[in-house]
Amino acid sequence: MKLSRSAAAPDGRMPLMEHLRELRSRLIKAILGLVLGAIVGWIVFTPVWEFMTQPYTRLPTEHCLNNKCDLVVHGIFEGFFVHLKVALMVGAVLSSPVWLYQIWAFVAPGLYNKERRWTYTFMAAAVPLFLLGAALAYLTMDKGLEILIGLAPGDTTVLIGVKDYLSYAQAMLFIFGLTFELPLFVVMLNVVGILTHARIRKSRRLLIFGVFVFAAVATPSQDPFTMLALALPTIVLFEIAEVIAYFHDRRRAREPDPYADLSDDEASPLNLDAVDAALEKGDRAV
């Protein structure tokens, strides 16, 4: 008889094999969601591909063949693999509620109520930040491509394969999206008490320098325009994260100290709730 997590224990504990069975079930459901989304992505390939290639088709035609910027297919199977990659990208986006829920359903029973609230906040902010970064990458791709293609000698024609362009577009979207998540991690580290506002303020110059170095190395084109397009908004987001950390630390400092009225030689009262929570945490770790 298979036990659900709630049936195994009130706090979500269960034997190792039950954990593995549940993990397998969650993975199967997530993969099925991805497959169904990929089928939809294959069906709507044409409008999605036209949308993705607009940054390239908007380029000046000086270095394009017959004054028209078209992508080139280099092999027999390249068209199929491009369809497959685009379908998987669309499928990952469409099925994100499914696989995000499967991850959450597997992890949530092992979290305390406060940790769950932090997770809700993290997810609510992470998705818009990633989409904001991806949108900025899409808007700046044509400028980076124009700079790189403009470096070709005047008497040459630039032929870009669909596979190369798709790899470039994927790298731009994911790098911008994931970079915009970094300030959110700073906020979460401050919330859990690992990183204070004082430490953030002290490291501001080093942080700004690191952002510019990261943007110069991580961007696929590595041109100055794309580097600045990634670095400057990221620094703004880090400044917002620092402000949030400042107010959070101030609020934490205003919280009353339960032991402030005790003299130096007076024993502090035993916090039974904290002891119970520590014991429960130790049981869960075992």
From TrEMBL:
<dbReference type="GO" id="GO:0033281">
    <property type="term" value="C:TAT protein transport complex"/>
</dbReference>
<feature type="transmembrane region" description="Helical">
    <location>
        <begin position="27"/>
        <end position="49"/>
    </location>
</feature>
<feature type="transmembrane region" description="Helical">
    <location>
        <begin position="206"/>
        <end position="222"/>
    </location>
</feature>
<dbReference type="InterPro" id="IPR002033">
    <property type="entry name" value="TatC"/>
</dbReference>
<comment type="subunit">
    <text>The Tat system comprises two distinct complexes: a TatABC complex, containing multiple copies of TatA, TatB and TatC subunits, and a separate TatA complex, containing only TatA subunits. Substrates initially bind to the TatABC complex, which probably triggers association of the separate TatA complex to form the active translocon.</text>
</comment>
<keyword id="KW-1133">Transmembrane helix</keyword>
<comment type="similarity">
    <text>Belongs to the TatC family.</text>
</comment>
<protein>
    <recommendedName>
        <fullName>Sec-independent protein translocase protein TatC</fullName>
    </recommendedName>
</protein>
<dbReference type="GO" id="GO:0043953">
    <property type="term" value="P:protein transport by the Tat complex"/>
</dbReference>
<keyword id="KW-1003">Cell membrane</keyword>
<comment type="function">
    <text>Part of the twin-arginine translocation (Tat) system that transports large folded proteins containing a characteristic twin-arginine motif in their signal peptide across membranes. Together with TatB, TatC is part of a receptor directly interacting with Tat signal peptides.</text>
</comment>
<keyword id="KW-0813">Transport</keyword>
<keyword id="KW-0812">Transmembrane</keyword>
<feature type="transmembrane region" description="Helical">
    <location>
        <begin position="228"/>
        <end position="247"/>
    </location>
</feature>
<feature type="transmembrane region" description="Helical">
    <location>
        <begin position="86"/>
        <end position="108"/>
    </location>
</feature>
<dbReference type="GO" id="GO:0009977">
    <property type="term" value="F:proton motive force dependent protein transmembrane transporter activity"/>
</dbReference>
<feature type="transmembrane region" description="Helical">
    <location>
        <begin position="171"/>
        <end position="194"/>
    </location>
</feature>
<dbReference type="Pfam" id="PF00902">
    <property type="entry name" value="TatC"/>
</dbReference>
<keyword id="KW-0472">Membrane</keyword>
<keyword id="KW-0811">Translocation</keyword>
<dbReference type="GO" id="GO:0065002">
    <property type="term" value="P:intracellular protein transmembrane transport"/>
</dbReference>
<feature type="transmembrane region" description="Helical">
    <location>
        <begin position="120"/>
        <end position="141"/>
    </location>
</feature>
<keyword id="KW-0653">Protein transport</keyword>
